[in-house]
Amino acid sequence: MARTMDPLAKKIFKGVLVAELVGIFGAYFLFKKMNTSQDFRQTMSKKFPFILEVYYKSTEHSGMYGIREQDQEKWLNSKN
Question: Keywords in UniProt for this one (predicted)?
């Protein structure tokens, strides 16, 4: 005999699955936006510096160095 899930369990499972997919796509689009826009990274540094730190560490871990330094240099020059 095949066991079927009751309707409440199905709804919970679908809700969790949708939440996971939204989280994955949200993280992807946030990373893509930060990866292509230095101005967006500056906004993130003011509002959510911990998220920007995760971005910097992940890019450095993947072998892309110098992004943090380029950002800091541009932001310092724009203040002067």
Answer: Membrane, Transmembrane, Transmembrane helix
